[in-house]
Amino acid sequence: xxxxxxxxxxxxxxxxxxxxxxxxxxxxxxxxxxxxxxxxxxxxxxxxxxxxxxxxxxxxxxxxxxxxxxxxxxxxxxxxxxxxxxxxxxxxxxxxxxxxxxxxxxxxxxxxxxxxxxxxxxxxxxxxxxxxxxxxxxxxxxxxxxxxxxxxxxxxxxxxxxxxxxxxxxxxxxxxxxxxxxxxxxxxxxxxxxxxxxxxxxxxxxxxxxxxxxxxxxxxxxxxxxxxxxxxxxxxxxxxxxxxxxxxxxxxxxxxxxxxxxxxxxxxxxxxxxxxxxxxxxxxxxxxxxxxxxxxxxxxxxxxxxxxxxxxxxxxxxxxxxxxxxxxxxxxxxxxxxxxxxxxxxxxxxxxxxxxxxxxxxxxxxxxxxxxxxxxxxxxxxxxxxxxxxxxxxxxxxxxxxxxxxxxxxxxxxxxxxxxxxxxxxxxxxxxxxxxxxxx
Length: 440
Hints:
Elements: H1 5-19, H2 23-36, H3 47-60, E1 68-71, E2 79-84, E3 93-98, E4 117-119, E5 122-124, H4 128-147, E6 156-161, H5 172-179, H6 181-184, E7 188-191, E8 196-200, E9 203-213, E10 215-224, E11 228-229, H7 238-251, H8 260-269, H9 278-284, E12 287-295, E13 301-302, E14 305-314, H10 320-331, E15 336-341, H11 353-366, E16 372-377, H12 383-388, E17 393-395, E18 401-402, E19 414-416, H13 417-435
Parallel strand pairs: 3-6, 3-7, 7-17, 8-18, 9-16
Antiparallel strand pairs: 1-2, 2-6, 4-5, 5-19, 8-9, 10-14, 10-15, 11-13, 12-14
Helix pairs in contact: 2-4, 4-13, 11-13
């Protein structure tokens, strides 16, 4: 035998063995392919079609018709709600993900965003990371548990909803809470759109358990002036007044305000409270930043109006009135303020020791030595709506994120196939662990 061919043959056999998939892994891939190849963007997509595909699979797996619903509050805005019946010894748990994705133009990508591509150890496609990959794993595990005859202590609810990314109304979680709360009411919610395994250079570094998130608030700041002919400039110029106010806004910082979740994060990670780092600064305080400008009406006229959009991400416990008052004082009296997108408070969820211990136990079983770190989301998810409705919510994503290669909402979005496969196994353990009723 050729001495070079022998090692290559052994390598090929080893690779084939490592890549061999169980039927459950293949099922998860098939579900992921269906979801990725069903366009669910706000402009041209159809979340109802995606929800119906999932419903068909669940019914074929033995879920009763009454326990699988596609709720459609508006055309193409369907939401999948399924229930795995339990013994009723504890209140239900809802497992939440969203079906919609952000826009993706074929010309911007090097591959077709709406075809699942397997290449170089990755799955490519719009939504692989946000959040159809985790949604596929939830569906596959619900089917597996049903096939195994698993009867949990409590009902387990699968909710795959529309409208989380914006651009199409209504938001599914918001609509369900207001109109069909019975379908998703629960003791608590597991939201796979937050938290989860974090990796650096292809190696897992920590598992984050998201228990709080900042709230979105958007304001306009406007300077006005009678204007005039540009050949006769005046000192009181609307653009200059707005620029002056923006510089004052840039210099303003809200005070540091830690909560139980962020204290736990800094304690667990050993990180310093370095406000010069954008992420740590966002954990420490409410932030507001100018994001858009609109000024003037003609190139040969003094501006009559100059306007900036100011986007704020507000800490739990900080009110809209407090934020507005601080901004008005900081910017001065040459501008006027108006609310573009009002804020809705969302309190941090408590960290029950029994739940934290269960998460730590299954993380240790899946990835020995990996630490569990409570965290606060600096962005926003539908978890904020659940918390606002009085349903404690925990971000417990299944698929690891490479922090140096985060392509969420971006070009050539992808996830590692290895992380996807590990996430399926982890999700199975997670669902079974949290389904058990608390010890009395």
